[in-house]
Specification:
Blueprint (H helix, E strand, L loop, with lengths): L2 H21 L10 H17 L3 E5 L6 E6 L8 E7 L19 E3 L2 E3 L7 H18 L5 E7 L7 H6 L11 E5 L10 E6 L1 E10 L5 E2 L10 H10 L22 H6 L6 H8 L12 H4 L5 E9 L9 E2 L2 E10 L5 H14 L6 E6 L7 E2 L5 H14 L4 E5 L6 H8 L2 E5 L14 E3 H17 L2
Helix pairs in contact: 1-3, 3-12, 10-12
Length: 452
């Protein structure tokens, strides 16, 4: 079967349906979009059923988990489990989008829309490859299971609570998480690990209500000031996190392990892509290692007082911040969260009340072997499609459910994908070009064909 011809034959319909998928405002972290997320799930169920897969919709407290399968290869054949997600990030700041985030637009070969890359684009080329392969061959050479969840961007809580109940259904030999990428447009890569995640919110309150900064300025200990001083104590001058025991479980990579991974870093290209030189690393830690094999503590947002147009001379009653920690293997998210919370509570300024909430949705970091059968097979498929050797990389971001899904399914796990660092995921003008969409499609088809 010529997979390139297969894609070209169905290109127009694939693009039309991809656009339909992108129009759903499936923002999982914001409750006002719950109905949109559910409509997206219903559309997926219908689409997969029409394509010939057996489909189940597993209910959660929020958005359904879609589970599609084709087990006609039989019990003597191996099973491949694929994972994607249909939820997306919020679109703020809206004014920085060139075109509306939920009206997909094709410009110079790229699709611009929220979710175009993360993860609807990667999900849809996977879905298209599966359905068209099945349409042509009538049967997969391996048993196939496909899970598409709707809460990855908010911690995968719904799927996590289903794992025990659905353990039998999720059994597999191989697990492909199609939610990763590569460093260069024409240089394919498989991802052998990702960092974990835990998020917190800290709130400082002093007065009962906002105060007049003239009448009470100099008397009140401004919560904005107190919070900024507190947050500044989270790191030392060398960039290290100051939380006691934060680094206790961090295990450095062995030299032979480092040799397997690409840590190449082009500072000039980085600056051109993102508009700054990397300076936030720990002292003596190379940039690529700082973004993948070292843990972090980040301040993701600060609120307090008046931030609207003009000016309002108030001392806010309270100020708050959202924090996140990216974690490496062996660091336990809940344990780290408690360490951060205890550190902050001990520093509560006199006369203020502090609340530190550990937010739902967390995941462990992991690294897997480059020598598994699945790693060799996916790397070979990428090389075949791209015509270049396949790199091995690590992901600085987080797939919250990855570790638990691998444990539950009992499968070898690899992360794959054709995303690029400048796809603007989580940012305005997110994009995904059709050339990479096609290569993702071809890679999935090639992988299925290798099981024949």
């Amino acid at each position: 079967m010529n997979f390139k011809s297969l894609f070209d034959q169905h290109r127009e319909k694939i693009l039309h349906d991809y656009f339909t998928f992108l129009r759903f405002k499936s923002i999982s972290t914001d409750p006002q979009y719950l109905a949109d997320s559910r409509r997206c799930a219903e559309w997926l169920v219908h689409y997969l059923q029409e394509g010939g897969l057996h489909v189940e919709s597993w209910e959660t407290e929020k958005t359904p988990v879609i589970f599609a399968s084709s087990l006609h290869a039989g019990p003597d054949k191996e099973t491949l489990l694929l994972y994607c997600h249909y939820d997306v990030q919020p679109v703020d700041p809206l004014e920085e989008w060139t075109s509306p985030p939920f009206e997909p637009t094709l410009r110079e070969g790229s699709i611009y829309a929220r979710g175009a890359a993360d993860n609807k684009g990667q999900c849809f080329y996977t879905l298209s490859a599966l359905l068209l392969f099945l349409k042509e061959r009538k049967k997969f050479p391996i048993n196939v299971k496909f899970i598409i969840e709707g809460e990855e961007e908010s911690g995968s809580r719904g799927l996590a609570l289903l794992l025990k109940e659905k353990k039998e259904a999720l059994q597999a030999d191989y697990l492909l998480i199609v939610d990763s990428g590569m460093e260069e447009r024409d240089l394919p890569a498989i991802t052998l690990g990702a960092r974990g995640l835990v998020c917190l919110q800290v709130t400082l309150q002093e007065a009962l209500y906002d105060l007049h900064s003239g009448s009470l300025g100099g008397l009140a200990y401004n919560p904005n000031r107190a919070l900024v001083e507190l947050l500044s104590s989270l790191h030392d001058k060398e960039g290290r996190v100051t939380i006691p025991h934060f680094y206790d479980q961090v295990t450095p990579l062995l030299p032979e392990e480092k040799e397997e991974i690409s840590f190449a870093f082009d500072e000039e290209k980085f600056q051109k892509m993102f508009g700054f030189q990397p300076t936030g690393m720990e002292k003596n830690v190379p940039p690529k290692e700082a973004g993948s094999i070292r843990p972090t503590l980040e301040i993701n947002g600060i609120t307090g007082g008046y931030g609207g147009a003009g000016f309002k001379t108030v001392i806010p009653a309270k100020a708050s911040a959202k924090l996140s920690c990216r974690l490496v293997p062996h660091q336990k998210p809940l344990e780290i969260a408690h360490q951060v919370r205890d550190f902050l509570l001990k520093k509560t300024p006199i006369g203020m009340r502090m609340e530190v909430d550990i937010l739902p949705g967390m995941g462990e970091g992991f690294r897997t072997s480059p020598h598994t059968q699945l790693a060799h097979l996916t790397a070979a498929c990428y090389t075949e499609v791209f015509g270049k050797p396949c790199q091995k990389i690590l992901l600085g971001g987080t797939i919250p459910i990855a570790v638990e899904l691998a444990k539950t399914s009992g499968a070898e796990m690899i992360l794959i994908g054709v995303g690029l660092p400048d796809d603007h995921i989580h940012s305005p003008d997110e994009r995904f070009d059709m050339d990479r969409f096609e290569k993702g499609f071809l890679t999935i088809c090639t992988l299925l064909n290798h099981f024949s």
